[in-house]
Amino acid sequence: MTVLEVLRESGFLRNVFTILKGSVAAQLIAVMALPLLTRLFSPQTFGVYQVYVSVLSWLLVAASLRYEIAIMHARSEDEAQAGIALCVLLNCSFACLVALACAVWSGAAAEVTPTAKTFGWWLAPAVLFAGLGQTLSYVALRARAYNANAQARVFQSAVYAAIGLLAGSVKAVTSSLLAADVAGRAAAAIRLFAKSRVRVGQWRGLVLSGALKRFASHHRKFALVALPAGLLNVAGLATTPLFMFLTFDPATAGQYALVDRCIQVPIGLVTQAVSQVFTSEFSALLGTRPSAAAGLLRSTVLVHFKLAAGPALGLLIGGPVMIEWVFGSQWAQAGYFARLMSPLFLISFVVGPVNMALVLLRKQELQLLWDGVRFGTSILLWTSVAHWRLTPGNAVALHVWTNVAIYLLFLLIIYREYRKLHAWT
């Protein structure tokens, strides 16, 4: 059976397009709103917002101790409900801890860091709503309710854009942008809950029967191995915007944030859509048809390379002119960054859809090792940038080519693992 026949039989392409419809609609809203937002908010504000998003991404990995992924592996509906209840309990508890930590930190650091109080107000509710949405998205994946995830993306983007524009027109401060972000995440979580099959009425009985404890024990590898790997993964991604902010200045960080927002985010929406379907379909194929699973991986990687090669070349050639024309002359440095980052956007588009491959193979240890290498390399890179006092452009170029090499290493690791299942022919 050919790869195309496997894709058709599994409904892979149809399911990808279902999620992509929501992703494209969400991105169109974001693209239309971003030029207006960049005229309301300064580069410094976007720099602070990028740091907030980086910190939030790191916190979300620990929100449910990665047990949300284990919902996909539940052997029965009752076990799945126990996993959902456990994740919600962990997420609410973690949000309370974040609120307490932010309150203490805001009071202690407010005189030193002007944005400290702002972070204290918005991080905790963001963790709560985004964490719940994260759990509910895996519930939808388990049920193959791809349309629910697609709709949630549209709701999040629409609410973020509407509140951001409204609040920014009244008072263009950092809190306005953060409030819009939290509202968008809350809208997405509410929409997912409305579309899910979560049986809240059973949770009390599941707690009393010890079902949550059994679920946590049976899937403890996700908390013990996948959690550290996930933290290192997000930390590796977050180091660049954080160090851009710390090494240079908020305006430079804001220029980088714009590139990330208008190019990396659309890439993320597409790759996440494919990754969700890949995660669901591939996990099913692994148990019954490993050769088809290997073919699905190979076709996913090759197709995404072909799709991204042209746009990456276009960004390399015309990125500076395009960015400055769309967003205004004050964002000229962002156009230069976009040109430098085009190779990284290409490899990110190729690797993103299969980024859960090692976890699906239950090779969490290898995932942890790779994430550790990437994080350690990133810290070494930015330490070198500070030591040698590199310019922002040279720092971004070094960051790009280092990460291209690391992502190629990831593909090599996957290639070796899947050779054990079936030859790539």
Question: How would you sum up this structure, described in words?
Answer:
It is a single chain. Helix content is 86%, strand content 0%. By secondary structure, it is mainly α. It has one domain (3-419). Helix 3 packs parallel to helix 12 (250-288), helix 11 packs parallel to helix 16 (364-388) and helix 14 (332-351) packs parallel to helix 17. The chain starts with a helix and ends in a 6-residue tail after the last helix. The model has no long low-confidence stretch (mean pLDDT 86).
Shape: globular
Q: Between the first and last Cα atoms, what is the distance in angstroms? A: 12 Å
Question: What is the average per-residue confidence, as pLDDT, rounded to a whole number?
Answer: 86
Class by alpha and beta content: mainly alpha
Helix share bin: over 70%
DSSP helical segment count: 17
Taken together, the total number of domains comes to: 1
